[in-house]
Specification:
This is Enterobactin exporter EntS. One of its GO terms (molecular function) is transmembrane transporter activity. It is built from 19 helices and no strands. It is mainly α and 427 residues long.
């Protein structure tokens, strides 16, 4: 549906409060889910860093780093929009529970292959592709289930921001843990740790008691067209998804090249890689904590522009430095900027999207985040092989600055349309 063209006055900026940031944790279902997710996300980052280090140790190829990232995340770009239809047609809690069992099994297989010393690059790419297919369902499912776990929907902004905080805490804690575990043991041990990390979330989902989500039982093609039509006809949704896609194609691609920077630019090893990614994760945590104190979506559009611009500028400066301490500070800012943009967009979308379309729209969001990050990672790997890793990041940083500039020029219209929509919601 197309939103009214006449803007309404911008509401007063909401006050901030630390107590409000944690309000979602008063709901038992969400509290257990939060703890289970936190452990699972740390395990996922431990595996991701160990896997990137393993592929680079085996091959020394930046292109294969990009291929592995593409295999693990590109399915979310292709399958994600269709996964949203399944999510809207089935019990979200049960579907997510089943997926955790599959994800646990994938990590165990990866650990077994590596322990047996028969792991080869094609195994890694194939297992990454399988992981990507499962994550096409897992990521939007984790997002869309949040509203069902929070009985008082006025606590939804807190729950969404806390979700972002725990994801980025995993980004901060997981990489250094991976670096330590690889140094003390092996990549295989990291994969085994990840398999165990799914157990708390499985327990949380088993005990959760939630109201059944609305299910759309229409024809598959009709349901898909409905989601696409809604996203394209809504100016706020298509604008937000557009910038988020550009952000993750450009800024998030730095993750793929971090093994190259750790070894070839800063002359370190797995521990250096862990600190680089951990610095970005700390910036992301800081952004998520800030966003968790907000009471509504008012003012978040401006935060999106600032976040994208900050990420682009910091990424550009990171590509120029050869001092590790400066690099860590700049990656902190990259993490802060990307999370501010991604999480603000997620909060706005979760607030304005109707329940019966939630799975589909959030699958578009996760495709814009993870799918575009995978394509960008592949592009970054190709650019790094053609030129070098620092030049590759500089090109991507300039592209993001251009995208943020275009979005900023349309800020007034977006604020007006969004203000009209938010004012009509029972928030």
């Amino acid at each position: 549906m197309r939103l009214p063209d006449t803007p309404t006055p911008t509401p007063v900026e909401p006050r901030h409060g630390g107590a409000h940031a944690l309000r979602a944790l008063r709901h038992s279902n969400y509290r257990w889910y939060f703890v289970g997710q936190a452990i699972s996300v740390i395990g996922t980052w431990v595996q991701q860093v160990a896997l990137s280090w393993l592929i680079y140790r085996l091959t020394g190829s930046a292109v294969l780093l990009g291929v592995t990232a593409l295999a693990s995340q590109a399915p979310q770009l292709v399958i994600g929009p269709f996964a949203g239809i399944w999510i809207d047609r089935h019990d979200r809690r049960r579907l997510l529970l089943l997926l955790q069992i599959f994800l646990l099994s994938q990590a165990l297989v990866l650990a077994a292959l590596t322990y047996a010393k028969i792991i080869a690059p094609w195994h890694i790419v194939a297992m990454s592709l399988l992981l990507g297919v499962m994550n096409s369902f897992d990521a939007p499912l984790r997002q869309s289930l949040v509203k069902q776990l929070v009985a008082d929907h006025s606590d939804l902004p807190s729950a969404i921001a806390l979700n972002s905080a725990l994801y980025n805490t995993g980004r901060f804690v997981g990489p250094p843990i991976a670096g330590i575990l690889v140094g003390l043991s092996s990549e295989a041990f990291c994969f085994a740790v990840n398999s165990l990390s799914y157990l708390p979330l499985i327990f949380a989902l088993t005990r959760a008691r939630v109201e059944p989500n609305p299910r759309n039982q229409g024809a598959f093609a009709a349901v898909f067209r409905e989601g696409i039509a809604y996203a394209l006809s809504s100016y706020p949704i298509r604008s937000l998804l557009g910038l988020i896609a550009v952000l993750n194609f450009t800024a998030s691609s730095y993750v793929v090249l971090m093994p190259v920077f750790a070894r070839d630019v800063f002359h370190g090893g797995a521990t250096t890689l862990g600190w680089l990614l951990g610095a970005a994760g700390l910036g992301s945590i800081s952004a998520a904590i800030y966003l968790a104190t907000r009471h509504s979506v008012v003012g978040l559009v401006k935060s999106i522009v600032i976040g994208a611009s900050l990420a682009a500028t910091a990424l550009l400066l990171f590509s120029l430095t050869r001092r590790l301490e400066f690099a860590l500070a700049l990656l902190f800012l990259v993490g802060f900027g990307t999370t501010t943009c991604n999480a603000s967009g997620n909060t706005i979308l979760q607030t304005i999207v109707p329940d019966h379309l939630r799975g589909r729209i959030l699958s578009f969001y996760t495709a814009s985040v993870f799918g575009m990050a995978a394509v960008g990672g592949m592009a970054a790997g190709e650019l790094a092989d053609a030129f070098d890793a620092p030049r590759a990041l500089r090109l991507l940083a300039f592209a993001l600055l251009a995208g943020a500039g275009v979005f900023a020029m349309r800020l007034g219209e977006l604020r007006g349309r969004l203000g009209t929509l938010v004012a009509s919601l029972p928030l």
